[in-house]
Specification:
2 domains
Length: 351
Amino acid sequence: MAKTYRVGVIGCGGMGRSHSRAYTRNLATELVAAMDISEESAKRLAEEFSIPAVYTDYNQMLTKEDLDIVSITTWQGVRAEITVAAAKAGVKGILGEKPMSASLGEADEMLEACEKHGAKLVIGHNGRFNAANTEIRRLVADGAIGQPTLLYHIAKRNAGLLNTGTHAIDGWRYTLSDPETLWVIGQTSRTTDRWERRSRCEDLCMGLVCFESGTRGIYEGDLPELRITMPRVTGTEGKIKVGEGGVVLLQKDDASGWQEITPPPVETDQFQELIDWMEGKIPEHRSSGRQARYTMEIMMAIYESLRIKNVVVMPLETKESPLDLMVEDGTLPVLIEGRYDIRAPFPEQNR
């Protein structure tokens, strides 16, 4: 008889609801506990998904519920400590939301705890389960555009590097079949007291990333107009972009026009693949914590480049957030007073 996995959700906001919905659809999982520092939020989620137990303390939940899987859908600033606690409590499958953490050091703590206690750690870069993204990865690996040379991403306005950059940069690595990173150079500005879900956030930034193949990735976040449109990936023999309805568009330099490719569906999701990894059916989850750490390292290296005023040659040695270090030592002074959070307003923002 197949095992039914006992699941707890820590963080009962929008992403907690999304994870809960997925677990209710999976016959191998049973939602048994919900935790949030807001009892009202936990009760609301529990009522919606018929979850029997509600907690406002994750340690109590981990102690009492004998959980097999935990989803950690909190803000990034507390994700590391909860992940470590879950691993120590014997949870064998942990699915955290992105970004992985608020610093590279925290990401390492998460990985070390999970390795020590035998937990499988996954970070929710669910773009790796998108059919178009997966088809683009296959096309690039098969040499459809020759050697990839450039990946390009302009972030949506007022989002922040840790918020949307994590998907963009992880998407680059997925497109290129998860290469090593050679070096990063970046620029960052923070003259306002800007935060994103209680982590410090830059006003704007850009980054140039060099992967081991020589492929460059360019990231723009909140830079001035004008904005330009670029293909998803450019190579020595062609280009790839995504069209309407998730169709993949391929242009080969030796042919005219764009070829439309309907990508085949991805036959699993991040939740089932976690179970498959736990059961030894696959060698590693495509969104493992190990892969997510690379993305965190690149984002922190964009900040670090400004801090050291130079190219950051990987691996990155600085474990603290370089953005925090620069704010705290006065390198990035606040010139416009008044803290504000672009995702979850501080209490004074509502006055």
